[in-house]
Design brief:
single chain, 354 residues, five-stranded parallel beta sheet, globular, binds FE2/S2 (inorganic) cluster, FAD, Ferredoxin-NADP reductase, oxidoreductase, OxRdtase_FAD/NAD-bd, iron
Length: 354
């Protein structure tokens, strides 16, 4: 650590800059020079495909606070939009990194996603983003298994590509089965790279909307007959992942990552009553969907980031009522508790401070 950095991180510097902290002042003149937080500069932007919502890969140069990432992990990315910081989770798509390495994020401009649309459509080379350290358990073990199976759907390909690229960079000699589902060949990202892999990588790109078979256990057995004996990583929309989990119901060889939670109401929980959003004075009947969606359907705009119960951006105070965590099924009827509304559904009359 340089003398300047030591001084900037000293108790004296902290005292002089209270209550905002040293980084709030440094970032006004040199955003990449903040001493406690991770920032990353966009060094290139590659347009992947323009079929459907456009997709871009951003290559980022993190500052010295970045500790690197393991293949399969994600980061929270923050951007200032209309004077307010918005945060969203994105998987790192490049191979595992160490401090000082460049990393890539690939994202589709989700029509409802302020952050993804900003990054794909408005971000420019040289822009500096807020970044968290890497997070997540969707990672590969050490030592590696003899063969692996990777399954992804849509944008779920990004952490899987990080795993694939890491295995290839490490010179992995086992068989890598990779089954990916996309909307159509025109929507396929990384297409050229996927068509030019070494012989130990068996890639199957499938487009069910264009006539290819959709995912079923039988179809997977046809593609990868020994799938049940393989350590398997699957990432994609909730519908696909739930089917893959059924395939591996009796196995502990599956690791999964959703990029969007299931908003299906749980069949064993009856959603009754109504939720009052006390600050706005709005109310609607409960239908078993997360409170974030229920609020948005009423025209409210609560803050959110990952929409997966991870980043805490959507934390709101529930003053009364019972909620169910749609990811874990856990039910809570505590009054005056902070809940993540992206993964909490009301199961009776409920009041939330929104
Ligand atoms: S939006 Fe990230 S926890 Fe709810």
């Amino acid at each position: 650590m340089t003398l300047t950095q030591t001084l900037l991180r000293s108790p004296l510097a902290a005292a002089l800059t209270t209550p905002h902290g040293v980084d709030r002042y440094i970032e006004l003149v040199a955003p990449m020079g903040v001493v406690d937080e991770v920032r990353a500069k966009i060094v290139s932007i590659h347009r992947e495909t323009s079929a459907g919502a456009p997709v871009a890969t951003l290559t980022l140069e993190p500052n010295r606070r970045w500790r690197g990432h393991q293949a399969g992990q994600y980061v929270q990315v923050g951007v200032e939009i209309d004077g307010r910081r918005r945060t969203r989770c994105f998987s790192v798509s490049s191979a595992e990194s160490k401090p000082g390495d460049l990393i890539t994020l690939t994202m589709r401009a989700n029509p409802d996603g302020l952050v993804s649309r900003h990054l794909v459509e408005d971000a420019r080379v040289g822009d500096v983003l807020f970044l968290s350290q890497a997070q997540g358990e969707f990672t590969i073990p050490n030592p590696l298994p003899a063969s692996v199976l990777l399954i992804s759907g849509g944008s779920g390909i990004t952490p899987v590509m990080s795993i694939l690229r890491t295995l290839l960079r490490r010179g992995y000699g086992g068989t890598i089965h990779f089954v990916h589902y996309a909307q159509s060949p025109d929507h396929q990202i990384y297409e050229a790279e996927l068509r030019d892999l070494p012989p130990n990588v068996k890639v199957r790109l499938l487009y069910p909307e264009c006539g290819d078979p959709a995912y079923t256990t039988e179809e997977l057995r046809g593609l990868v007959p020994d799938h049940a004996e393989l350590d398997t990583w699957a990432c994609g929309p909730a519908g696909l992942i739930e089917l893959v989990q059924e395939t591996y119901a009796d196995s502990d060889r599956l690791k999964v990552e959703y990029f969007k939670t299931s908003t299906k109401p749980a069949s064993d929980v009856v959603a009754e009553g109504a939720t009052s959003f006390a600050v706005s004075g709005k109310e609607s009947a409960n239908e078993g969907v997360p409170l974030l969606e229920q609020a948005e359907a009423l025209g409210l705009s609560p803050e959110y980031g990952c929409r997966m119960g991870i980043c805490m951006s959507c934390t709101s105070r529930k003053t009364e009522g019972t909620v169910r965590n749609v990811m874990t099924g856990a039910v809570s009827d505590e009054p005056d508790e902070d809940i993540q509304i992206c993964v909490s559904a009301a199961v009776g009359d409920c009041t939330v401070q929104l």
